[in-house]
Design a protein that fits this description.
Belongs to the glycosyl hydrolase 1 family. InterPro entries: GH, GH_1_N_CS, Glyco_hydro_1, Glyco_hydro_1_AS. One of its GO terms (molecular function) is coniferin beta-glucosidase activity. There is one protein chain. By secondary structure, the chain is α/β, with parallel strands linked by helices. The protein has a single domain, classed as Alpha-Beta Barrel (TIM Barrel), CATH 3.20.20. About 45% of the residues lie in helices and about 15% in strands. The strands form 5 sheets. It has an 8-stranded parallel barrel, surrounded by 5 helices. A 3-stranded mixed β-sheet has the order 6-8-9. Strands 10-11 form a two-stranded antiparallel sheet. Strand 10 and strand 11 form a beta hairpin. The longest helix is centred in the middle third of the chain and has 28 residues. About 5% of the residues have low confidence. The structure holds beta-D-glucopyranose (BGC). The site of beta-D-glucopyranose has 12 residues, from loops.
């Protein structure tokens, strides 16, 4: 055998060895559960991030007005006037996203920046320009925008003129705004969300009165005006019909040429029956009915959930025949914001102490984080929540089964540091956040492997930000923000997320 033959046999054998090794490695490392088209991103919203509340022709919105009122519910008496100044720092923030390796960014539009007076005034071209610049700069870095049209904020004009969501006029305003968004940005935006967590919005705005427009009645809260047992259903009804109107416009005027999809986001806690009794299992189902299915059932199947109809009767508004025709799979994906899980017990047949969920108009159920003194998962700081990542798999599987596996996107999942006196050093070494995100992503991958059609996952949030009534006390960011200098610093979780993404796309 000459030297050349020996060399080529050697080369052949070493190539075979590498091949076997690679095969062995890939069979011991199962392929990622996340398909190659999967969206990995971070989420934000206009009022919580942008600041610049009076810049370049923006009108006042409901949160601008609310946060400036003495006696509001904001824990640190702060507001979003500056927030994290994303309006001026968006290029820096896109660089942070790019260095994480995300392929998507969820943000919301400030309605009053585009339409300072709703449909009663001119379009503010500077507002359109801001979002055009933001979208273009994202696309340059291969980051796909997922755009929420409104995340709790809307022009104050609509509140002052006709009481915003309590009036059917709000449907017309939203449709008008949505049309402008599709027309201005739809050539580049392929994922739209109409509303973010309207379940939270109407509960806080009209039942407990803890969000603007601060309407409620006793015993749910202490407001100057409102009806906690009626108004949440009226506001929700108008929001559902506003969503339908926007979807109708998108599907008839834009979707075919623009080729995007449109969805609706809900606050999807997981409710675990506290026992195997039929009463507790039905109570857990009622908890889902009175929170998420309240919106999804009409939008997908054209009627309110039976659990709500049976209990509420005529308190629930009706849909007209024409509306019912439009209420037929009026979304392309369900946006799932998942943070926490709770035990649920029945309050229809058993006595419960008054609290969230227990009244008739909330569906007669009570939530708790413990069963016989044992927590559902390791307690975490935020709002009595627990680390129970199985809740992610369970809620996604629940939605898959109930709604025939309509595509889903996890539009928010995140962990808050809530101690106001923590040092920057402590906040940056955020091992608890890493554990939370890793656990939830792992549970999500299990749901996907078992067949759930989930197309994306967004961490709440890229940065620490203004957290509604928790002000700047709650910090959800992968990046720490120094609120004096607005300097952004990556936390351990940013490094971890970057590595996770690189291993999965
Ligand atoms: C909301 C976000 C909020 C997050 C964390 C979600 O309910 O959609 O706007 O910041 O929770 O509190």
């Amino acid at each position: 055998m000459n030297i050349c033959m020996k060399l080529s046999i050697g080369l052949f054998l070493s190539q075979m060895f590498l091949l076997v090794l690679t095969e062995k490695q890939s069979s011991s490392n199962p392929p990622s559960a996340f398909p190659s088209s999967f969206l990995f991103g971070t989420a934000s919203s206009a009022y919580q991030y942008e600041g610049a509340y009076l810049s370049d022709g923006k009108g006042l919105n409901n949160w601008d007005v609310y946060s400036h009122k003495p006696g509001n519910n904001i824990d640190d008496e702060s507001n979003g006037d500056i927030a994290v100044d994303h309006y001026h720092k968006y290029l820096e923030d896109i660089d942070l996203m790019h260095s994480l390796g995300v392929n998507s960014y969820r943000f919301s539009i400030s309605w009053a920046r585009i339409l300072p007076k709703g449909r009663f005034g001119e379009i503010n071209e500077a507002g359109i320009e801001f979002y055009n610049n933001l979208i273009d700069a994202l696309l340059v870095k291969d980051i796909k925008p997922l755009v929420t049209m409104t995340q709790f904020d809307f022009p104050q004009e609509l509140e002052d003129r006709y009481g915003s969501w309590l009036s059917p006029q709000s449907q017309e305003d939203f449709a008008y705004f949505a049309d402008i968004c599709f027309k201005s940005f739809g050539d580049r935006v392929k994922y739209w969300v109409t509303f973010n967590e309207p379940d939270v919005q109407v509960r806080s705005g009209y039942r407990t009165g803890t969000f603007p427009p601060s309407r409620c009645s006793g015993p749910f809260g202490d407001c100057t005006d409102g009806d906690s047992e009626k108004e949440p259903f009226v506001a929700a009804h108008n929001i559902i019909l506003a969503h339908i109107a926007a979807v109708h416009i998108y599907r008839t005027k834009y979707q075919e040429t623009q080729g995007g999809s449109i969805g609706f986001v809900l606050h999807c806690d997981w409710y675990e029956p506290i026992s195997n009794s039929i009463a507790d299992m039905l109570a857990a189902e009622r908890a889902q009915a009175f929170t998420i299915n309240w919106f999804l059932e009409p939008i997908i199947n054209g009627r309110y959930p039976l659990e709500m109809q049976n209990i509420l009767g005529s308190i629930l508004p009706d849909f007209s025949t024409v509306e019912k025709q439009k209420l037929n799979k009026a979304l392309d994906f369900i946006g799932v914001n998942h943070y926490s899980s709770y035990y649920v017990r029945d309050c229809m047949f058993s006595e419960c102490k008054p609290g969230t969920g227990t009244s008739k108009t909330e569906g007669y159920w009570a939530q708790s984080s413990q069963k016989n003194g044992i927590p559902i998962g390791e307690p975490i700081e935020q709002d009595g929540s627990s680390f129970y990542p199985q809740g992610m798999e369970k809620i996604v599987t629940y939605l898959k089964e109930r709604y025939h596996n309509i595509p889903m996107i996890v539009t928010e999942n995140g962990f808050a540091d809530t101690k106001p006196n923590s040092t920057t050093e402590e906040l940056i070494h955020d091992a608890a956040r890493v554990k939370y995100l890793a656990g939830h992503l792992n549970a999500l991958s299990t749901a996907i492997r078992k067949g759930a059609d989930v197309r994306g996952y967004f961490v709440w949030s890229l940065l620490d930000d203004f957290e509604w009534i928790n002000g700047y006390i709650f910090r959800f960011g992968l990046h720490h923000v120094d609120y004096k200098t607005l300097k952004r610093t990556p936390k351990s979780s940013a490094t971890w997320y970057k590595k996770f993404i690189s291993q999965h796309i």
